Amino acid sequence: MTDAFSGSTRVWIADAVWKWAPNGNATRTNFKLQGEYLRSTRSGSLVYDVGNYRQRRRLSRGAVGLVPAGVYQFMPRWRVGARTERLDPGSPDYGLNAPSFAADGFRPSRNTLMLDFNPSEFSRVRLQFARDRSRVGVTDNQLFLQYQMSLGAHGAHSY
Asked: How far is residue 8's CA from residue 22's CA, in Å, rounded to a whole number?
């Protein structure tokens, strides 16, 4: 017998974007704030097998995720931005199963800063730093230098 969950899962997601440009002209200076919110709840029964003794108990759990990000174009072709990602796994109610499961209270997160320059409408150079704490006891610092280039026809040009 393997461990199994039987029940229902409900997921709610909200996504919002707010844009601002002085005098309505976004070509020189603008700011974009966007965010995502996710909530997941589970309710049902958990079956687990310890020492060939099959046990079925009630399980109730909720988790919340949040991802706000902001990008500011401070002059033509230059942008700076920040983003944070958070997850609160909640406090699960394992019922009578609680002694069998360790609760560490870990809340994963990731923070990112970026600076990019657009030499033309077809290319972008981005410098990005991220501090990732998605694993217990580990901080992963990441530095990226990225070059993007677009080739071919698109909505603004036929070539």
From this structure: 47
